[in-house]
Structure formats: C-alpha cells, structure tokens
C-alpha cells in the first residue's frame, strides 16, 4: 500500500463515515442516551464489523453474493428487520426519561457489530473501493495493513464523535429535545431499513 493509495483510501473511509446512515445515527443516539463509554464501545463495534466486511470483500464474499443472490437478499432482509426493530424501540422510548443505567460495554460493542452486520451493502462498497484504489493481486500482508488501517481510522473517528457528543452542552440540548430527536431518528432508521429491502 503506497502513501497515495493510503490517502485515497482514508478519504473514502472518512466520506463514508460522515454520510448519514444507520451506523452514524446509532452511535450518535447511543452516546447521547447512554454516555461516552457506551458511545465509544458502540463505535469500536461498528469499526470492527466495517473492517471485517472489507476483509471479507478481499476474500471474495462480494463474488459469492453475486453468484448466490438469495444469500445477499437474506442478509438484506435480516438487516432491514434489525434496523426496523431499533427504529421501533427508539420511537417507543422517545418520551421515556433517560435512566441512570447505561448498557454494559460488551452490549454496546455488540450493538455496533450488529448494526454494521445488518448492512451487507458494506461488503459491496468495500469491494468497489478495493478494486478502484488497489491493484489486483495485493499480498496478504498488504491486505492486513489495509484492514488494520481501516480499523484504526474507524475507531479514531467514532471515539472522537463520542467525546464531542458527550460534552455537557450537547447532552443538555439533546435532553431538551429528546422526544422529537428520538422520533426523527426512528423515522430515519426505519426509512433506511425499508430502503435496504427495496433497493437492488
């Protein structure tokens, strides 16, 4: 992996991370409702699964999905169902006050894993990025460096989000608008879940 390739790859990652999607919404909401530690743990889970998708893309999972469309469709349906489940729980709890107890770090980490696992389009995105940026026939060592680089970038970005979002001023603003904010997040998450099923 050359320096130019690393720069382009990292810019692609940052653009994907900044775009509004299930992962971004989930980590924002978790941090605001459960605190900094839970937000960081969620981000670590999200980053771990995203890097795993990249590794699987390099091993040919995107080709498997194209060869067996039913497998991709099954992943999409399960993923959409999970996003709709999160959306429903978010909507239902919009008016409930935030309790003092935050989820265990392991639960927050698993939640991050599941949210990114719920989006099989990630492996297709990873495959497209790998093909465009990196030459064919990269070595196993280079692939490890690419996946490790992605893991580091994702963890740094999500941890930074958690620190920024958990500041007192941001938390106070969120608490004032929680019912509206949660319901908007629920609608967006539900819409993303439906789009995941309906898009080809």
Number of DSSP strand runs: 0
Instruction: Quote the distance from N terminus to C terminus.
Output: 32 Å
Mean pLDDT rating: 80
- Tell me the number of structural domains: 1
Could you state the order of secondary-structure elements as H and E?
Answer: HHHHHHHHHH
Query: What overall form do the CA principal axes indicate?
Result: globular
Helix content: over 70%
Task: Give a short synopsis of this structure.
By secondary structure, the protein is mostly helical. The protein has helices at residues 3-18, 22-34, 36-58, 61-67, 69-92, 105-117, 121-133, 140-165, 168-176, 178-198.
What is the element layout, followed by pairings?
Layout lengths: L2 H16 L3 H13 L1 H23 L2 H7 L1 H24 L12 H13 L3 H13 L6 H26 L2 H9 L1 H21 L2
Helix pairs in contact: 1-8, 2-3, 2-6, 2-8, 3-6, 3-7, 3-8, 4-5, 5-10
Textual characterization of the structure:
- With 200 residues, this protein is mostly helical.
- The chain has one domain (3-69, 99-172).
- Helix content is 82%, strand content 0%.
- Helix 1 (3-18) packs parallel to helix 8 (140-165), helix 3 runs antiparallel to helix 8 (140-165) and helix 5 runs antiparallel to helix 10 (178-198).
- The longest helix has 26 residues, at 140-165.
- The two termini are 32 Å apart.
Features:
200 residues; mainly alpha
């Amino acid at each position: 992996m050359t320096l130019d390739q690393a720069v382009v790859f990292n810019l692609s990652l940052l653009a994907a991370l900044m775009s509004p999607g299930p992962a971004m919404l989930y980590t924002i909401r978790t941090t605001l409702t459960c605190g900094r530690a839970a937000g960081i743990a969620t981000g670590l889970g999200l980053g771990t699964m995203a890097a795993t998708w990249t590794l699987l893309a390099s091993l040919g999972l995107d080709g498997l999905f194209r060869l067996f469309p039913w497998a991709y469709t099954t992943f999409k349906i399960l993923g959409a169902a999970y996003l709709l489940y999160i959306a429903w729980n978010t909507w239902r709890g919009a008016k409930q006050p935030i309790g003092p107890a935050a989820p265990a770090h392991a639960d927050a980490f698993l939640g991050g894993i599941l949210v990114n696992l719920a989006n099989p389009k990630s492996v297709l995105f990873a495959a497209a990025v790998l093909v465009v940026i990196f030459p064919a026939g990269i070595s196993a060592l280079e692939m490890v460096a690419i996946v490790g680089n992605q893991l580091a970038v994702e963890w740094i970005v999500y941890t930074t989000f958690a620190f920024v979002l958990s500041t007192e001023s941001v938390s106070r603003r969120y608490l004032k608008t929680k019912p509206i904010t949660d319901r908007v997040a629920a609608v967006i998450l539900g819409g993303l879940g439906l789009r995941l099923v309906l898009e080809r």
